[in-house]
Amino acid sequence: MYPDLLPTIHENLEEQITQGPLFRVIIHNDDVTPMDFVIYTLHNIFLLSEIHAIQVMYAAHFNGSAYVQTLPKPEAVRRVGMAHVSASLNGYPLHFTLEAE
């Protein structure tokens, strides 16, 4: 449904383990971003399964925010940046924050 404007993410867990401290990615609800775009973002940028992405989206929708995943700081910053750029290019205010683990 949404054009794939961002490069494919390739997981390399061994590399991630050595990248430093871990950070929790938090998604924040807004009244503008469509649910299907949130699911798309969680699935394609944060690599959540579609079912997990739907669960996270609904948790944020009903609670105001929700935990997405824990990643090494450089990877968390990279993915949140990609999500913000994608949302901005599509005209949505979708927002993520990071919390130190």
Could you name the key traits of this structure?
101 residues; alpha+beta; Ribosomal Protein L30, Chain: A; 21% strand
Structure commentary:
With 101 residues, this protein is α+β, with helices and mostly antiparallel strands. The chain has one domain (25-100): Ribosomal Protein L30, Chain: A, CATH 3.30.1390. It is 46% helix and 21% strand. The protein has four helices and three strands; from the N terminus they run αβααβαβ. Strands 2-1-3 form a three-stranded antiparallel β-sheet. Helix 2 (35-44) crosses helix 3 (50-63). The chain is globular and about 35 Å long. The mean pLDDT is 89.
Summed up, what is this model?
By secondary structure, the protein is α+β, with helices and mostly antiparallel strands. The chain has a single domain, classed as Ribosomal protein L7/L12, C-terminal domain/Adaptor protein ClpS (Ribosomal Protein L30, Chain: A, 2-Layer Sandwich). It contains four helices and three strands, in the order H-E-H-H-E-H-E.
Topology, please?
Layout: H1 13-17, E1 22-28, H2 35-44, H3 50-63, E2 65-72, H4 73-89, E3 95-100
Antiparallel strand pairs: 1-2, 1-3
Shape: globular
- The total count of helices amounts to 4
Portion in strands: 15-25%
Helix % is 40-55%
State the fourth-level CATH superfamily. Answer: Ribosomal protein L7/L12, C-terminal domain/Adaptor protein ClpS
CATH structural class: Alpha Beta
The tally of domains stands at: 1
Q: Could you give the order of strands across the largest sheet?
A: 2-1-3
CATH architecture: 2-Layer Sandwich
Low-pLDDT segments: none
CATH topology: Ribosomal Protein L30, Chain: A
Spatial separation of the terminal alpha carbons: 34 Å
Structural class: alpha+beta
From the alpha carbons, calculate the radius of gyration and give it in angstroms: 13 Å
What's the story with the biggest beta sheet? 3 strands, antiparallel
Give the averaged pLDDT, no decimals: 89
Q: How many beta-strand runs? A: 3
Q: What's the order of the H and E elements?
A: HEHHEHE
